[in-house]
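Researcher: I've been going back and forth with a colleague about how Sulfotransferase domain-containing protein might be arranged in three dimensions. Neither of us has a model we trust, so I'd like an independent prediction. The organism is Erythroxylum novogranatense, in case that matters for your notes. Sequence below.
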Amino acid sequence: EGERFQQTYTRHNEIIQTLPKHRGRTGGVWQYMGFWFSSDVLKGLLLIQDRHFIPKSTDIFVATCPKSGTTWLKALIFATVNRTLFDFADHPLLTNSPHDLVPYLDRLICQEEFVSRIRDQPAPRIFATHFPYTLLPDNVRDSGCRFVYVCRDPKDILVSGWHFIHKLRDISPVSMQDAVSSFSKGVVEYGPFWDHMLSYKKASMSAPEKILFLTYEELTKDPIVQVKRLAEFVGMPFSVKEVTDGVVEKIVRLCSFENLQNLEVNKNVNSIQENYKNPDFFRKGEVGDWKNHLSPDMAAVIDEITEEKLKSEGINF
Ligand code: A3P
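Model: Here is an independent structure prediction for Sulfotransferase domain-containing protein. You can compare it with whatever you and your colleague have in mind.
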């Protein structure tokens, strides 16, 4: 196993020399198969493409562009799928970050001990990824596993990401104008947003039983309806008794921004991802906060790209 890792790492070293590079403030990104990745994440992607990750048909993936509501979805899926295992008064989400309960494959796949730990984990295993659907290898896409994609207004993603990068250590301030410019060009980690979103949107249109496409906005508007959709999608619909017992409401409340943000674990504890702290994942949790940060001109730049991209793909939301 170690030797196979090494082969991919050698390939990574060779490939990365040949890729277009953008030296950003957070260590640089490289363009690979149309998307921009940091060096670490590219390593993870190559490992997945080289089939170091062995998927199971029962696996569930939370797929998102960063800052789309990944933390929320991780919590909702974990609570929904495991609802018969835990008491709401003594729930793992009360003492663990959603990021520790639903690990990101993208970086952790580089750790051999992670790979062996997940091998025998009971089904259904739940993972998160920010990789675009089209870059995942056939063995993952055709494994029968399911994906839940969360999409969000790119203006809110951009603003959320702008706040987030300033929480990283050692970073000089980035102007909003520069952030809009990089985002529009797609030169941000896992960008361009539009191609990312379309990779899942198109796949969900041709295989709705495999890919559920949700939006942060509809989750905010009616979380009860969306959690019921989620449960059905993963093949675990709520029974009439569960609905009358208020189980859906309990899940929604447990995973709400207000509840999670105020838990000790999410207020003070460092995340498994070395640069981030758990509180960094909870900022405002609102739809449309971009209005407080983007000028009408900046917003128009983003909206025009969205419109153009959707029109050229013939997709309506
Ligand atoms: P804001 O910065 O707009 O507040 P991700 O989890 O993909 O990194 O996305 C983070 C965004 O989701 C942040 O948006 C964060 O506040 C919001 N968020 C985190 N937990 C949430 C929850 N339980 N409900 C709603 N939004 C949540």
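Researcher: What would you highlight for our discussion?
Model: I'd start with this: Residues 29 and 38 are 4 Å apart (CA to CA). After that, consider the following. The chain has a mean pLDDT of 94.
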